[in-house]
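Input structure tokens:
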């Protein structure tokens, strides 16, 4: 599989773009163009949604916020993995943004997400 060309290593700063929207209008397209170019955006290295799961993958926990800009990608990833018969669990947290677990650390939602992660790993790895 060909690797992406690797554009920038930093996340574009959208501060001061005059919008409270996250991402700001047009921000997703801009961010994608900075992360990978053209056809590279459809490589599994860039987005696992485009991966080949026919040979199976390890048990996978996907956590997403209901206000997350990658929510539909999270659902598509879950469907792709589970559709091939591998264990996949999708947990959606109401009202939460992208990467809420560390960004909103200390909130009840973040705490629940970490507890769900711990329980998932304990279960899948056979911890007592």
């Amino acid at each position: 599989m060909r690797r992406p060309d690797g554009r920038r290593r930093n996340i574009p700063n959208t501060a001061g773009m005059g919008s409270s929207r996250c991402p700001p209008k047009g921000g997703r397209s801009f961010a994608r163009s900075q992360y990978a170019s053209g056809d590279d955006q459809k490589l599994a290295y860039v987005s696992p949604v485009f991966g080949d799961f026919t040979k199976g993958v390890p048990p996978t926990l996907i956590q997403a916020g209901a206000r997350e800009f990658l929510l539909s990608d999270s659902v598509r990833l879950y469907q792709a993995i589970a559709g091939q018969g591998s264990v996949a669990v999708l947990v959606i947290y109401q009202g939460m943004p992208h990467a809420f677990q560390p960004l909103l650390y200390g909130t009840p939602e973040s705490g629940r997400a970490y507890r769900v992660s711990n329980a998932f790993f304990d279960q899948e790895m056979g911890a007592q």
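Residues 6-20 have pLDDT under 50 and may be disordered. Residues 108-125 form the longest helix (18 residues).
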